[in-house]
Amino acid sequence: QEYPTYTILGQSQYQTCYPSSGFEVITPADSNTESTALATTAYPTEKPNTMVPTQTVQRPSSGDASTSPSLSRAAASKELDEQARKSIPGKNRGKRKADTSSSQDSELERVFLWDLDETIIIFHSLLTGSYAQKYGKDPTLVIGSGLSMEEMIFEVADTHLFFNDLEECDQVHIEDVASDDNGQDLSNYSFSTDGFSGSGSNTNHSTSVGVQGGVDWMRKLAFRYRRVREIYDKYKTNVGGLLSPQKREALQRLRTDIEVLTDSWLETALKSLLLIQSRKNCVNILITTTQLVPALAKVLLYGLGEVFPIENIYSATKIGKESCFERIVSRFGKKVTYVVIGDGRDEEVAAKQHNMPFWRITNHADLVSLHQALELDFL
């Protein structure tokens, strides 16, 4: 294929990409160019989240997520997502706008498809205690930090991003209901009194609510996603602006604590993300199994908003990673090279299905070797 020369540094230590037969071994080079970037902005505080269709903790949760009390909220997530998918007849009507693409897309040569949890950040394994067990950390501290971050993620999602309204109206991409938006000025619009019911189960609203999936209902849904986009764009480099001074300090402390507990996992991953971002012909795309709105809250709270514009974030909760990959390929075309970076079976299988090289992240060394390979222009 197009990437026969990809190499893995210290291949005896690190997992190979797909297809493994096409990789050579090279001698790692020292890299002192790393700390270009952790100039991450102040990270405010709010609720962490994860929608767990298969392996991330979200309002619904995967099996092991039930080990922590606050995860009960996340526990039924997979089932809720399935129900939500069926509950909104209007959302898959084929009216979806094409994913936003800039003129810069035509100059792209390489698209990096990133998983979020356990790849860029450590989150799910904090909640389940598996990270503490794997690395010999204090499980009480690790799980406590995970639960605190989860709470912040859901708080931001609920308070600022309409997650109470949108939890059962989940979308894959921020533009998916944009065609139902009539462009109305929302400066004086009252979201709290417009009668929108995301679940469609409340029959006490006036008839102005509209039938779920109907034109009026879809327009109000689109208004909420438009406002979510505005808030994300406004605070993507300053999530602290969304938070009270106390919450902001709490978030900064929590992020520092998690970085210490995870031996600077996020900082290490950011080196590769920022290096890719610095290339004019490359782009970072995020595909997560967390529902879209909590995923946006999570990206903001972990200080990744500047690395991932909202149009480059996809949620695979409803459709799975393979279908997300198909959407991304239809957006950027087949002439660019796609590289998948993740820790899970989902993205690995999807990468293989689309014949994309896959870089597995299982530990810090994999992140370090990824950065070295990028610095040496092997990726």
From TrEMBL:
Transmembrane segments: none annotated. Keywords: Activator, Chromatin regulator, Cytoplasm, Developmental protein, DNA damage, DNA repair, Hydrolase, Magnesium, Metal-binding, Nucleus, Phosphoprotein, Protein phosphatase, Transcription, Transcription regulation. It holds the Pfam family Hydrolase. Its main location: cytoplasm. It is an enzyme of class 3 (hydrolase). The active site is at D115, D117. Belongs to the HAD-like hydrolase superfamily. EYA family. This is Eyes absent homolog.
